[in-house]
Amino acid sequence: SPRRFCLHPGLSEDLVGTHPPGAHSLVAVSVGYFLEDFVDMLCNQKLHQSWELLFHHSVVIVCFGIAVLLHQYVGFALVALLVEINSIFLHLRQILLMANLVHTTCYRLNSIVNLGTYVVFRIATLAWMTRWLFLNRENVPLATYAVGTVGMAIMTPMNIILFYRLLRSDFFK
């Protein structure tokens, strides 16, 4: 969470070996959440409806799983969890759609907040993480650097495409 970065400023300098108390547990619980959500989607949704999210969850499970197992890169995973702040508004959007409340002030307000948090917590965070990975490539073992680079190479376009879809759906109908 953002509070952790304020309380532990060294985290922004060392995302490999430094992490505040409880951070490892938070990342481990997040792996559990993504695993549960992955299995739930496999069991309850058609593959053509959920393949993008299943792919997303697979990447997160692998990357966060490495952090949990190695007790390293927990700080990097914490930064990645900032992305999930936007998920609140993405999920609220889905709930409002399912409740057929698209033409309400609540939906419109959520659409604006959703796009704002999307830019700040998804696009900017992923850009910062990609930059950090690139700048620290000498300090990161090749295998881990490869996983991180592939993860960012998958997540960034996925999030840009989803941003475009949200923009088109909610603002350019």
From TrEMBL:
The keyword Nuclease appears for this protein: no
For this UniProt entry, which segments traverse the membrane? Answer: 51-70, 76-92, 112-130, 142-167
Which controlled-vocabulary keywords does the entry list? Membrane, Transmembrane, Transmembrane helix
* Pfam name, any one: TRAM_LAG1_CLN8
Q: Where in the cell is it found?
A: Membrane
Outline the extent of the TLC domain. 1-173
Q: Where is the signal peptide?
A: none
Q: How does it sit in the membrane?
A: Multi-pass membrane protein
What domain of life does the UniProt record list for this protein's source?
A: Eukaryota
A GO-annotated cellular component: plasma membrane
Q: Which SMART domains match?
A: TLC
Biological process (GO) annotations held by this record are: membrane assembly; phospholipid homeostasis; plasma membrane organization; regulation of membrane lipid distribution
Q: Per its UniProt record, what PANTHER family does this chain match?
A: CT120 PROTEIN, TLC DOMAIN-CONTAINING PROTEIN 2
* Protein name in the entry: TLCD2 protein
Species, as recorded: Mesembrinibis cayennensis
